[in-house]
Amino acid sequence: MGSLGLKPIDTKTKIGPKMGVNTANGQKKNTVVVTEPEQEPASPATRLFHTKSLNCYIIAILGCTTKINRDVIKKGLESTLVNHPRFSSISVVDEKKGARKWVKTTVNVEDHLVCPDLDPDMDSPDEFLENYTSSLTTTPLDMTKPLWEVHILNVKTSEADGVGILKLHHSIGDGISIISLILACTRKASDPEALPTIPSSNKKEKKDKAGCFSRFCYYVWFSFMLFWNTIVDVVMFLATIMFLKDTDTPMKGGAEVGDSPKRLVHRTISLDDMKLVKNALNLTINDVVMGMAQAGFSRYLNRRYGNKKGKGSSKTNNLPNNIRLRGSIVFNIRPSTGIRALVEMMEKRSKAKWGNEIGYVLTRLPISLPDNPLDYIRQAKTIIDRKKLSLESRFSFRAAKLF
Predict the structure, then answer these.
(1) Could you please report the per-residue DSSP string of 229-281?
(2) What's its membrane topology (predicted)?
(3) Confidence (pLDDT) at 55
(4) Is 357 exposed, middle or buried (0-12, 13-18, 19+ CB in 10 A)?
(5) Could you tell me the domains of the chain?
(6) How high is the pLDDT of residue 345?
(7) Of 2, 45, 249, 402, which has the fewest beta carbons less than 10 angstroms from its beta carbon?
(8) Pairing relationship of beta strands 148-153 and 113-114 according to DSSP bridges
(9) What Rg value do the Cα atoms of the chain yield, rounded?
(10) Active site residues
(11) Which of 82, 52, 282, 273 is nearest to 172 (CA)?
């Protein structure tokens, strides 16, 4: 979606009613300057995210190994998050011009902290957490306040002793910027003054011993593949908008699926197991995650089609031929802002890059039952590598911004 394009917010002034003020020479000066609230026009992405058909929120769940101290969270929010321009402004519509804009306001953190009184010995805390989180998807935010809330649930689940839920309107920013901002609001437990560190890539550039000719050939090949893949992807993107549809499967929702209530269910998997596979096959975590998704979809559909045929065995291939199933992958097309820049934004209102700067690519999800489960991950790597060699994400971002 289009960038929110955060710019320095200027405080506008206007001349107020005339008043008689005596000056040193006895003359009267008849002007008084009145300060107006800081404001900024809303970007196309903001206006789009506030339409009735696309009024969406971001909900993030964070589990803690200890009970959450409400007073500590409140103090931390007052010194960090509320100083951010988007978290201290409300979205209003100009009655005269009909245009939406961000208007600076005073933030009362108490109005944004929700701490329900819970029974610590409840029977099913995990189910309660899922029900509570799902209910947040149907409860709109108060538009007269900055569009964010923090819910503190001090209930012991199977994975945490305390849970914090952040709910905010998607017009504030995209997932990457929000994750970076949350990290910028935290500090190391070993050093309360130090910012958290983010792992960096250890890949080293390979030295090309073959010389300039091989580099020239590589750049020619790279440019040709980038051009060709982009053309093919853009054509497929436009075809999908106009007529190209996926196969009707038990996973495909109906026309009104967007308006139906949602339920958030999660399953925790071992990151160490994923790293083991990643390192063994020399891949990335994204390759492993996408391969796991393909495996899950394939086995789920095989079971559903098997139930229709009266063959519930997962070992039998019940899948129809040539299933077209596609998903969207979100690409962050913003240069990495860095945690330090976001800290300075909250402290000094720097010009750190902010907003919704994400591009979408459509990708096929092969549905099959290979003998070797690792084939799912190899297929995923081939697909992702192919999408990286394309400008489809840039095209979708620019198209959405233009639209």
Answers:
(1) HHHHHHHHHHHHHHT------TT---TTGGGS----------HHHHHHHHHHH
(2) Single-pass membrane protein
(3) 77
(4) buried
(5) 40-172 (3.30.559.10), 214-245+267-400 (no CATH)
(6) 61
(7) 402
(8) parallel
(9) 26
(10) 170
(11) 82
